[in-house]
Amino acid sequence: MDLGLKDRVYVVTGATRGLGNAAARELVADGAKVVVTGRDEERVAGAAAELGPNAVGVAVDNADPGAAERLIAAAREHFGGFHGVLVSVGGPAPGFVSDNTDEQWRDAFESVFLGAVRFARTAAAELEPGGVIGFVLSGSVYEPIAGLTISNGLRPGLAGFAKSVSDELGPRGIRVVGLLPGRIDTDRVRELDALSADPEATRAASESRIPLRRYGAPDEFGRVAAFLLSPAASYLTGIMVPVDGGMRHGF
Description:
Helix 2 links the parallel strand 2 and strand 3. The chain is of the alpha/beta class. It contains 8 helices and 7 strands; from the N terminus they run E-H-E-H-E-H-E-H-E-H-E-H-H-H-E. The mean pLDDT is 94.
């Protein structure tokens, strides 16, 4: 199936590893051009080099108020256009209400929530009909995840923001979508599993609750992201798509 991605230009944040990187890889594989970002300049350059000539890396922090404008300008400068953004950011510090600090909450709010709001606001002003704004969120939008209190507090609010924005931008032909990853086999998920006394038992227990009985592969997530960002999904907006092997049982 041709997704219509050839020569379309996207900004993908948090793309040096994990889910953002997986999405960027699939976009490039289907003919798109991407600006990939992250906070570490060396890792950003390495990720862009691995993706090839249809990718350029720009080191920025999602919490930087000027990040969105800088990245969209880079897309136009290097590739001559801008068709959408996928806002992905590393997960907040794990922990419970008793041990997460005010500083951790503030840092997460700036990067996970306010940074995403700024990207959406800036992209909305720049996009033409057919453009798309995507958010990588979490299954915690529907159900809290033990030990991820900060994420549980911020992700559902961002999902509500995304739905509001989809209503506002729909009349302009701009789509807004969210992805809700479950247990995808990324560094982040392995790091969370490793916090337990027995990581292998933790993984086995998690897999037993997934109808497909396994963690997802990053490229499986990436293909869903590429589809939702593509013109092939032109009548999909305001939706939150679980990519979780069937863990969410509600409609």
